[in-house]
Amino acid sequence: MKNQIVVSFIVLSAIASLFPANTIALDQVSLPKKIALTLDDSPRSANGYFDGETRSKKLIQLLDDKEVSQVAFFSVSSRLDDEGSERLMRYAKAGHIIANHTHTHPDFNKLTLDEYKQDFLKAHHSLKDYPNFKPWFRFPYLREGDTREKIDSMRNLLKKMDYTNVYITQNNYDWYLESLFQKAVKSGQKFQIDNIKELYVDLMMQSIRYYDDMAIQHLNRSPKHILLLHEMDITALFLGDLIDQLRAEGWQIISPEEALEDPIAKIETKSIFKFNPGRIGEIAKDNDQKKGLWHSSLEENFIEQQFQERVLKIKEDKSVNTN
Ligand SMILES: [Zn+2]
Predict the structure, then answer these.
(1) pLDDT tens digits for 76-94?
(2) Ligand 1 center from residue 41 Cα (angstroms)
């Protein structure tokens, strides 16, 4: 009997040694990985492909089809003419959150503190009576202030008004891909829409995996992520495919409210950023990581080159160039 116990102990120890403790712990805490969806700049003006109303209807329909019951729309209140206002109401009535993204989408690096605060307050007054409004703020361009005074003063104002700074953990340049897409449509260039879809999903997944890995490196776990998206035509066209890919890779789509329960929501980072890569980059910089705060897919030249090769096929088919 005693020998049996000793043998069992040896066997168990041998098995345990095959799985280093941190591997087991990471797998246990990080599956399924979780991510919430947030769409900035609503109601964004029509850019050529869809009109604004069609874009909004398509977004609502695709979220419904994919059973994503709640996303947040960070809204710019200077765009609330009759059409824009009706679009926000549509989002709200579909169960999505309406939140503050300033009145005129200013760059905090270029405004005084007072000018910036006034812009934020103006948006608050325009947006606060929408159904499903939440006192949540998304800094335009993610710029939270380039001086200690600006950062602290906005943090205090948000606290005083019971606002939450809804940071993002997942940065990307979806807006730049949208601009290349609209330019190609306007200039009548020929391309397969499926090729843009594949490029969109690929670029988004690359940055998502990158910032999740960076988060695990610094937090030893995969946090509840918040994905930055924009209320744009490529989002209305391809977000459903991105959701499918996320789920295929083991991600679960959660509400922004659930994402904000993560302890990283309470962090007030110390570093000052002129250009902020998002909360994982902030945490990494506070931990002394100096390189790689921005993923290579967040670079205009890189996206442009990918677009030419994979969508316009300029490298493979020179005739496209001369037409
Ligand atoms: Zn924005």
Answers:
(1) 999 999 999 999 999 999 9
(2) 5
Helix axes 193-219, 233-248, angle to 10 degrees: 60
What tens digit of pLDDT does each residue of 189-226 get? 999 999 999 999 999 999 999 999 999 999 999 999 99
Beta-carbon contacts of residue 203 (< 8 Å; ≥ 6 apart): 172, 173, 174, 177, 297, 303, 306
34-322: which CATH architecture? Alpha-Beta Barrel (3.20)
CA of 314 to the centre of ligand 1 (A): 31
Which residues make up the environment of ion ligand 1, defined by Cβ < 5 Å? 40-41, 140
CA 22 – ligand 1 centroid, Å: 38
The CA 37 to ligand 1 mean position distance, Å, reads 14
CA angle 72, 282, 244 (to 5 degrees): 40
Q: Supply the Cα-derived Rg of the chain in whole angstroms.
A: 22
Q: Residue type at 316?
A: E
Helix (H) or strand (E) holding 233: helix 233-248
In the three-class reduction of DSSP (H, G, I as helix; E, B as strand; rest coil), residue 75 is classed as strand
- The total number of residues shown for the chain amounts to 323
Residue 168 Cα, ligand 1 centroid: separation in angstroms? 12
